[in-house]
């Protein structure tokens, strides 16, 4: 029997020697768990709901998958003939959802196993200590790869329950769903009285910043009207923060947003909270460059560059651009987040630039690999690239909480800002916290003649 770790993958033929097998999910603890299997197409969508097995639908039309009770309490088994599945079914995602208001943290232990001819071939185990407020988990997946079937130990939690799982795969639940969010939620009002003191006057801003930056700000402020009026208070706060840290405006600074689009972020995208953080970051980024835009990447297991964020698309960027966040999650394999791969992809594009680059890296934690992130930060410290990590309603931030302890860096090229109380951060304080670290880094680049 082979014991897998989270994220590990194995060929089904290697361990089972057959396309006919059983997948068993077992959960122990003081809670009721409902298991399901989603038969997904090549885009990761539940395009045919007949291939969604759960307590109320236990067999596919062709009999290729059957859900049955397991041999003991808390277990369920899926009997599967991979060879009999239609070609459009490219992936089988095995999930568990907690019934009621309880969470997976109360789970004593859980596991997903592959059995061939009744004998255990592969096991991936997990415990409640690996979770916080999640109420559902994608335990593992079977997927087609170059004519083979592979098994992946996923172990990715969801804040929502079964409904969130169904909707994340593109399905529809039978009972009424809550109304959809507005195309662009109203931003929280800025709070006054932060540590930076009174906001600088227009005259103070104009005296503090170079003429070209002032002209840029005037143009952005003029264009923030009508449908873009929500940007006006953000620009006011961004300009005031730049006046306090004029070093950040001495030369053009390219800004790149790299946003977590893994499954645990689904509710934050749907509620509009991620759109709000896009608004804030775009207002600052567009004030830092003459182009007036912000490059954008999304990542989960994979990463991809999206269309730049501009004044023309910012209003509903996360809901509409490049298919919207649900499409991003689908094409990037939302089951887990792979920060190191996203960081390497970003460096492939921006590492060779001679002007400074600010990477705004948005994540909700539970990082894929602390040591890989640390290694990338050490290697990239000789490039004019600054990694501003932003924790968003998350947990288990690992190495991000200890960036100052990373030895071997040529420059202090990273900082971490955690947003646990989103509305408690005034726009001014948010921008000033970001610019504090960026300004110090730019001064370091100047002293070390890296610009």
From TrEMBL:
Residues 173-199 are annotated as: Disordered. Residues 176-190 have a biased composition (Pro residues). Residues 256-449 form the vWA found in TerF C terminus domain. Residues 2-169 form the TerD domain. SUPFAM superfamilies: vWA-like. This is VWA domain-containing protein. It comes from Oscillibacter valericigenes.
